[in-house]
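Quick start: read one record
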Amino acid sequence: MPKDAKADILTKGTKIKPKKDPRTPKKPSGAYIHYCKDKRELLKQEHPSLSLGDMGREMGKRWQEETMEVKKPYFDMAARDKARYERELAAYNQSLST
C-alpha cells in the first residue's frame, strides 16, 4: 500500500464530523472577546514586541483589572450580539422547516 494511502484509512476510534451548513448563523461573542477586539491594536502599539501568547495574557490581566463601569459597554455589545444570534437562528430554523 502506498504511503499516502495509509493516511486516508480511518482508524477504529476515528469519527467523521458532519459538514457544517454554511448558512448557519455565526455564534455570539462574549464581552471579553469584544474587549479584546477593541483594545488589541492599542496593546500592539504600546508593546510591539509581545508574542501572541504574551499579548493574550496581558489582555486577560487588563480585563480582570477593569472596573464594571469600563466593562459594561462590552457586556452590552455581547447582549446585542446574543440577540442578533437568536434572531438569525430562529430565521435559519424557520427556513429549514419550510
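Residues 68-97 form the longest helix (30 residues).
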